[in-house]
């Protein structure tokens, strides 16, 4: 009998999926929980060179923050 994947935490699901690679259900539950657009940053098409520069600077800042967060957590993925 398989455990109730819906009640498991993401860490528990990942551990279960790694230990039972033949089971697809824990992966399905993990994928359903993903919300990539919740963390997405949308940029409008810049109308001027100054807007393009501002957006590029903002993009570099976001990337640097994510790199710092990843380096401080000691993991390769977020």
Automatic annotation (TrEMBL):
It comes from Aliterella atlantica CENA595. InterPro entries: DUF6887 (IPR054053). This is Uncharacterized protein. It comes from the Bacteria.
């Amino acid at each position: 009998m398989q455990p109730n994947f819906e009640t498991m935490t993401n860490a528990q699901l990942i551990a279960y999926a790694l230990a039972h690679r033949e089971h697809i259900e824990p992966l399905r539950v993990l994928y359903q929980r993903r919300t990539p657009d919740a963390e997405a940053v949308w940029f409008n098409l810049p109308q001027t060179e100054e807007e393009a520069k501002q957006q590029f600077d903002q993009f570099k800042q976001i990337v640097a923050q994510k790199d710092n967060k990843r380096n401080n957590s000691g993991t390769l993925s977020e």
